[in-house]
Design a protein that fits this description.
By secondary structure, the protein is α/β, with parallel strands linked by helices. The chain is built from 11 helices and 20 strands. The longest helix has 19 residues.
């Protein structure tokens, strides 16, 4: 079993809590009076940061949400007031993907960028990467931080990183073959898209010595049917990872699967709260992930509402890590849930059922209101030479049996639904 930092990853829980509070209090000293956003938040709430003596004391600190950070950005353009240092101290600009609203701009100092790389070091090493691997990242680099940080993680663990931007999908496949790529980091959607291109071009994926896929950027790696599909078409072992541009890379999957994703507790403090009451949930109960990053002093988030739904498990893992785990990874988002005929449905649950059909290449979900009732419609983009009626019936029965919902299943012409490289947007809600 490989570890990025064995001492940290196997540290007793009590020692981890002591390390967390030490880092937290050090961070408070640096940001109070300098970071206008959090200084104002603390003062308004009457919080004395010196009184925070343990992790439990954090409950008195007000929560932070993305809308607050975006407003602070709007009120103090261009970067906002969540900055601990003068602008000249920052060397990196990124922003969130903006798939759920207006993008949030984030800045990093050289020190916090190094911290980003360390966080990704846990991710990559947890997946078994070594200095002998060749990691392929197929995207062109833009302001979205995710795969930039993967590059830093590869540098820190001395893994060769091969960027694949500026090429189409077939060219990327040939490059992977020519360079002997052994690992790929991309979205689950794009891993399947590359396999689709390979099949249509009669490109043999077995000619690429790939053994690992690290999937991030969207749900899918934690969706059993999607993960199984990626592993099957590529003949690899897949690993889940979760993080956010404004937060950092906070969790990763180890070799013991299925077992959830480990929380990187040396770099983050996590809480799980009921999203409605904002009270802590019981152990193993689903709730919203609230997170505090401990190494990003220049752009901290403290008790930040991620909107992600998780289930925390503190039971020991057979890999030897003492870091707790999110059972099933990130289960969905608070704001992604839709109600169809009185039933709460998450897109990831529908994806898991649709992906059970090997004939489905791509799909789109539409939830609308018909005669004052929720209506679920799913469009299927199938592989060539597929019997459409069989595929329709298969998906319909899966959703009927597992979710108790009747749905409208449509088959659309092959290749007519959009293909995604970065985060896919398959859910459309028409009110």
């Amino acid at each position: 079993m490989r570890f990025f930092d064995h001492a940290l990853e196997t540290m007793p829980p009590k020692a981890i809590k002591e390390l967390q509070i030490e880092k937290l209090r050090s961070m408070f000293k640096k940001l109070y009076g300098h970071n206008r956003f959090y200084t104002d938040k603390f003062d308004t709430a009457g919080i004395d940061h010196k009184a925070i003596q343990n992790v439990n004391d954090m409950a008195q600190i007000p929560l932070t949400n993305k809308e607050e950070l975006i407003k602070a950005q709007h009120d103090s353009p261009p970067f906002g007031s969540n900055a601990t240092f003068p602008e000249s101290a920052y060397s990196r600009f990124h922003q969130t993907s903006g798939t759920t609203g207006k993008p949030l701009r984030v800045l990093d100092t050289p020190e916090s960028w190094e911290w980003w790389g360390r966080c990704w070091g846990f991710v990559l090493t947890g997946a078994g990467l070594t200095e002998n691997d060749r990691l392929f990242v197929p995207f062109s680099f833009g302001p979205f931080i995710g795969f930039w940080a993967a590059l830093e993680g590869a540098r820190i663990i001395n893994t060769m990183m091969i960027p694949g931007g500026g090429r189409d999908s077939l060219e990327r496949l040939h490059l992977m073959k020519e360079l002997g790529v052994t690992a790929i980091c991309c979205t689950p959607t794009y891993a399947l898209r590359l396999a689709e291109v390979a099949r249509e071009a009669e490109f043999d994926l077995n000619e690429i010595p790939l053994r690992i896929s690290i999937l991030s950027g969207e749900p899918g790696a934690n969706v059993p049917a999607t993960k199984s599909r990626v592993e099957s078409v590529w003949n690899v072992k897949s690993y889940d990872h979760a993080g956010a541009s404004e937060v950092g890379a906070h969790s990763f999957e180890c070799e013991i699967q299925p077992n959830g994703t480990h929380v990187n507790e040396s770099e983050f403090i996590v809480e799980v709260l009921n999203p409605d009451t904002l009270e802590p949930v019981s152990e193993g109960e689903q709730g919203e992930l609230i997170i505090t990053n401990l190494g990003r002093i220049g752009f901290p988030v403290i008790r930040y509402r991620t909107g992600d739904l998780v289930r925390l498990n503190h039971e020991p893992c057979k890999c030897g890590r003492t870091f707790p785990r999110f059972e099933g990874g990130v289960l969905g988002r608070v704001d992604d849930m839709v109600v169809v005929r009185g039933i709460n449905v998450f897109p990831s649950a529908i994806e898991n059922l649709v992906r059970r059909s090997d004939e489905v290449e791509e799909f789109r979900i539409t939830v609308s209101t018909v005669k004052q009732m929720g209506h679920l419609s799913i469009e299927l983009d199938l592989k060539k030479d597929t019997n459409p009626e069989n595929a329709k019936n298969d998906v319909y029965q899966q959703i009927r049996n597992e979710l108790g919902l009747s749905s409208e299943i449509k088959v659309v012409p092959h290749g007519s639904l959009p293909r995604f490289e970065m985060k896919a947007r398959r859910l459309h809600v028409n009110n």
